[in-house]
């Protein structure tokens, strides 16, 4: 498996008390597709500002992002850090591949284009490891080569995102299976097991053809926005609430907010 591993010690902390562990309270996850490449018909140039407002209003622990430029993720990292002063907030980005050049796919503004995430960590030193890669299976008719991205926060969680092929449902299904059944288990073998959450635009639907459930391991939690945006989590989680978030016409997808909990035992 071709995987890029980046060990990050990213500490941008202000004074304050240690944050409560993310696993002892509802873990709020928002998935957003911001359509910010500048090339698609859904581009408005306003979706990043709308996403920052969602972060301020909804106070998520994890935001997974699709169809973003690299600096979009930096802007939303700042929004999350402002929402949680005194906490360790980290972000990660990986570019889609460009079959035509052999390099990164780019937004119209020249920045790398791809997927990202922003997360609040329980550990105060902000230690995390980033894993990413391009899928072995791609639709060769599409110049954009799809990627996946995960961040491992020791003694906390794995958080992942992806944007699967939109030109072939069968390729999207193969990519989904690779991520959930090969890539994520492999990185967990390296770092050790922790609860895992994936948010992304999978371009697969519940009861679709093919059905997104066919690539999700047995026992995992899964929810969606009624369309192609999905959140998948390992079996210790239960879903306490879900809600669609309007993006005021700034992108062609709603935001999807889910609150996850791990029931206490003993």
Automatic annotation (TrEMBL):
- Residues of the Endonuclease/exonuclease/phosphatase domain: 49-209
Q: Does the keyword Protein biosynthesis apply?
A: no
Q: What's one Pfam family here?
A: Exo_endo_phos
Upper lineage is: Bacteria, Bacillati, Actinomycetota, Actinomycetes, Micromonosporales
Q: Spell out the SUPFAM superfamilies in the cross-references.
A: DNase I-like
Q: What is the designated name of this protein?
A: Endonuclease/exonuclease/phosphatase family protein
Where on the tree of life does the source sit, at the highest rank? Bacteria
Return the Gene3D superfamilies for the record: Endonuclease/exonuclease/phosphatase
| A molecular function GO annotation | endonuclease activity
Instruction: Name the UniProt key words of this record, in alphabetical order.
Output: Endonuclease, Hydrolase, Nuclease
